[in-house]
UniProtKB/TrEMBL annotation:
UniProt catalytic activity: Transfers a segment of a (1->4)-alpha-D-glucan chain to a primary hydroxy group in a similar glucan chain
Main function: Catalyzes the formation of the alpha-1,6-glucosidic linkages in glycogen by scission of a 1,4-alpha-linked oligosaccharide from growing alpha-1,4-glucan chains and the subsequent attachment of the oligosaccharide to the alpha-1,6 position.
Listed Pfam families: Alpha-amylase, Alpha-amylase_C, CBM_48, GlgB_N
Gene Ontology BP terms: glycogen biosynthetic process
SUPFAM superfamilies cross-referenced by the UniProt entry: (Trans)glycosidases, E set domains, Glycosyl hydrolase domain
Active-site residues, as the UniProt record annotates them: D411, E464
Family: Belongs to the glycosyl hydrolase 13 family. GlgB subfamily.
Organism: Magnetospirillum fulvum (Rhodospirillum fulvum)
Protein name: 1,4-alpha-glucan branching enzyme GlgB
Domain of life: Bacteria
Amino acid sequence: MREIPVLIKPGDADALAAGRHGDPFAVLGPHPANGGVVVRSFQPQAAEVFVLAGGEPIAMTRVHPDGLFAARLPDDGVAGYRLRTICPDGLVEEIDDPYRFPAQLGPLDIHLLAEGTHMRLYQVLGAHPRTIDGVDGVLFSVWAPNAERVSVVGDFNSWDGRRHPMRLRHDAGVWELFLPALGHGSIYKYEIVARGGVMLPLKADPCGTWAERSPKTASKVWHQPKWEWSDADWMQSRQRHNDRHAPVSIYEVHLGSWRRNPSDGNRPLTYLEMADELVEYVSAMGFTHVEFLPVHEHPFGGSWGYQPVGLFAPTSRYGSPDDFRVLIERLHQRGIGVIIDWVSAHFPSDPHGLHWFDGTHLYEHQDPRLGVHRDWNTLIYNFGRTEVMNYLCANALYWLEEFHVDGLRVDAVASMLYLDYSREPGDWLPNRFGGNENLEAIDFLRRMNQMVYAEHPGAVTIAEESTAWPMVSRPVHLGGLGFGFKWNMGWMHDTLDYFSKDPIHRRYHHDELTFAQLYAYHENFVLPLSHDEVVHGKGSLIGRMPGDDWQRFANLRAYFGFMWMQPGKKLMFMGGEFAQEREWNVDCSLDWHLLDSPRHLGVSRLVSDLNRLYRTEPALHQLDNDQRGFAWIDCNDRDNSVLSWLRRGVDPHDCVIVVGSFTPVVREGYRIGVPESGFYREILNTDSEWYGGANIHNNGGVEAEDVPWHGHSWSILLRLPPLSVSVFKRDG
């Protein structure tokens, strides 16, 4: 022990042994000393440690009782040395010393990370397999600028944070360490000591790309050969599939409850099983896109993924990251786009997550009036911090680049835009101008959208935004937020309210079906019937329809017909397409047996045919977001609860006539005006017996008469089925 003053500075050994040394590379590894080299290693599990440097093993001296060892070597004999450890039970291991490797993050990466402009930070932070000086291992890097010490822990070091403390790159507040011999599947977390020596709960990797399966919470190293994509045709053409002039009909899916395997403990299907079953189903139903509820790793299944902890990791509940790639690739190969719900508004307070990450409010606001969501008991990102904005923007690009996702539906945008969102007076802080707008969140959303469209022109972003905030789906350079589309929550609320009412009262609520046309072209709208409408006691869509069984199904078919014939892209949550009877349960499969019932099967057939008609008729999609594509024929017949309108394509001769009759009576001889003479063929009727209806129709179509009506020179005389939507197109 006489050599301690020579080998190590006073206090360093105690600090290392106690796990509170903030600069381990200053002590551990090789260091010049009196014309030679001193090698130090902390191995608390070992009884003996030897340096292997090409000749005879050199025994290291225990210089601290808790396991700090040191040895002197000649200067020319230290390169590429290894360590041999012998444990008290006789276990012998030979390892490469992590502390003999130099810093790995380059000056440009450090500069961009510090500046908050590293748009590919997921290529730097996190766990990345590397080969350095011929040694295979994993480079770990994590942003924790206010920590006193950060260590990588796992089974490989008995979760002992003293053994692998990391190197702090002061300029960026990033800690890094290369650990030899680790690789694919290694389980790890970060042990972080906050200022004042406070030990924090073990943290999962904020940039981890794989995780243990819930309820376990550790990160895992992902190291597989780079994925060779087979969807080049789709990627080259997807811009026209996502365009606002394209037919976009979205099937919203929760992966864990779409369909389950009853022969295997009723477990959810895997990504690979979905790649067969879901892809085939969506293709057969005619949807153009699938939207997955959040696939980010999340600790609580009951959150449906909306409280994510691992923003860069597809949840392990259904398989590996590459399994998820297979699912996306298969959808693309069938011409189906993939949108994921992306949660940037908030994150949960689970101790292994981002909350209080380095002993400070690193990702969230310190003041709860800015940093806590009262409704969800979650934390709000500090969008004004450049590193946090960088983290989220890079994550958006990550899903587009690494998984070929075609779009991001951004959750809870309204909660991001307003500082007083769901808050009482006195429980929020105004912005620097005294207003309630969250200026930092606005800047973030604009920057994120600019990056997405600049880097991936074929991709699309969609806002779930429920207020009258202007220009959500208008370009940033025009003063908008930069989204491609916005959910029309007002349309959803009004129309659901209308169709849930007894038809006898509908004449008093006629405006609920017409009001949306007053603002329908202020934004690029998606008409959503989402998961939020079939949970929390709201029941199912069919369960909200009034009347006896026949009327309930007729109402639902009419509602779907009305939705598909209105301007705007379409979104339907799973189960709605076959009239799921019970409220959605995240822990159960959809009730697929209902398709054995003719009425449920009829609804499914209708949705499939609506999708087909929507895709094939330019008038029904080309001008979805342009007022030139829609005109009322008659929107004032509230006494009969009848609406009629026309849809047009870019070519004005592409014209479709739609009539909705929303009472349970047959209307004979109902006349509406039409723009041209000719035969108007009935191309869809929601009352068809094929869909479970009464089969009241117009014998295939009607000839226009030279009778002016509704401001048109011609008109047609129709037979309107009860609770129905009928669609006509002029031949020729």
